Task: inverse folding
């Protein structure tokens, strides 16, 4: 029996440890770039010196950000430790990219209103949820029916960044639009079932534990894609949630049309959500929980956006 390919081994090791699909793709890409950088040599025949050279190359020649360099190093450490079974020693004098502290782009309330005013339909609803509940793009597009609690005005975010669940608010003003979206999604689901399909991808191994759960309404996507995917080998069809590029493109066009003069995108709505809560007097720990930040220092960046730093500071010029 032939030995599995290196990248297949890498993906298997990542999935066995429940890494997200995005992390899996990113780590595999870095391994491929590492191998190409060293002339297609197998990583088992390389070691600390080659890893050092590659990571240093990213900072010096490619001028990549510190976070990008760290991700590349993490991918290689994972490869050697969990796939090749090799524990790397001292990497020597790795040239590390300088870590910069950049303030997030934040819109005013008027700016958010202008942006959303240039949107409509499903895309408007998704953008409104990202601002109104502080959702990431991936969290918004992957919402399932059971994640919405209209009675408690709550949204449960499943498997967010870092594999964590959290609860955030469901804006009351968006409930009518969400109910209409669910009606459209239910019509799509019922049509799929009538065609002999209608099963949705379930997290983990739930599809094996509960074979019929994939057809249940509560597991369906709030924002299903317009067309069903089809497996060319088996002929099976299904429906995934909308792709992130759909809402990203819509927000980008809305920014241009609204005249907002900032480099704003989907994540800007999440930044604006946190900043506006802080402006309204909510404490930083509450905002940390709503955003799902592991470290309070990550949330503290919004105090710098407000130039508060613990207390309001008024310019002496305003007293003239």
Result:
């Amino acid at each position: 029996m032939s030995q599995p390919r290196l990248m297949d081994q890498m993906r298997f090791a990542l999935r066995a440890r429940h890494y997200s699909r995005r992390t899996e793709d990113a780590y595999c890409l870095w391994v491929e770039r590492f191998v190409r950088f060293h002339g297609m040599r197998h990583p088992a025949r390389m070691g600390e010196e080659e890893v050092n050279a590659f990571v240093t190359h990213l900072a010096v020649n490619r001028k990549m950000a510190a976070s990008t360099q760290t991700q590349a190093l993490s991918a290689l450490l994972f490869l050697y430790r969990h796939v090749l079974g090799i524990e790397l020693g001292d990497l020597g004098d790795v040239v590390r990219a300088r870590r910069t502290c950049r303030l997030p782009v934040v819109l005013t309330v008027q700016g958010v209103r202008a942006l959303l005013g240039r949107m409509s339909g499903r895309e408007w609803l998704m953008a409104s949820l990202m601002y109104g509940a502080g959702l990431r793009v991936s969290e918004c597009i992957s919402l399932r029916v059971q994640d919405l609690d209209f009675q408690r005005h709550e949204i449960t975010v499943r498997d967010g960044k870092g594999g964590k669940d959290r609860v955030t608010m469901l804006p009351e003003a968006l409930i009518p639009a969400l109910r209409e979206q669910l009606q459209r999604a239910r019509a799509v689901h019922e049509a799929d079932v009538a065609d002999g399909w209608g099963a949705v991808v379930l997290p983990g191994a739930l599809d094996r534990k509960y074979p019929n759960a994939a057809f249940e309404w509560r597991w369906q996507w709030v924002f299903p894609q317009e067309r069903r995917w089809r497996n060319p080998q088996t002929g099976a069809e299904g429906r995934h949630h909308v792709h992130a590029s759909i809402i990203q493109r819509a927000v980008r066009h809305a920014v241009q049309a609204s005249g907002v003069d900032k480099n704003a995108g989907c994540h800007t709505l999440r930044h604006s959500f946190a900043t506006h809560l802080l402006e309204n007097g909510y404490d930083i720990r509450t905002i940390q929980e709503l955003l799902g930040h592991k470290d309070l220092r990550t949330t503290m960046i919004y105090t710098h956006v407000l130039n508060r730093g613990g207390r309001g500071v008024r310019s002496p010029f305003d007293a003239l």
